């Protein structure tokens, strides 16, 4: 009798009609909205969080963007700065 070098296959999971990992769509939305509300410190109403979660799941852009979403202006070096007038001779 020769020994087999292959790994034994795990037993196939039995599916009894319902999977314990599948949750209802509304339950998922409620859970995600509750998590979002907790992250915000409880300041946002639950209805707003539910609407945000629905938008995110639909792939739409959410309304909660930064208050100042403009890019920062790049700092330009001052041409006539005090340092240049003091440190560099004419």
TrEMBL record:
Residues 1-20, 60-79 are annotated as: Disordered. It comes from the Bacteria. This is Uncharacterized protein. The lineage of its organism: Bacteria, Pseudomonadati, Pseudomonadota, Alphaproteobacteria, Hyphomicrobiales.
């Amino acid at each position: 009798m020769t020994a087999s070098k292959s790994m034994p296959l795990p037993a196939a999971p039995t599916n009894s009609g319902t999977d314990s990992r599948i949750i209802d769509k509304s339950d998922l939305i409620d859970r995600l909205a509750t998590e979002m509300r907790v992250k915000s410190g409880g300041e946002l109403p639950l209805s707003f969080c539910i609407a945000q979660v629905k938008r995110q799941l639909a792939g739409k852009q959410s309304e909660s963007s930064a208050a100042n979403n403009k890019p920062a202006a790049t700092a330009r070096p001052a041409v006539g700065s005090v340092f240049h007038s003091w440190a560099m001779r004419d």
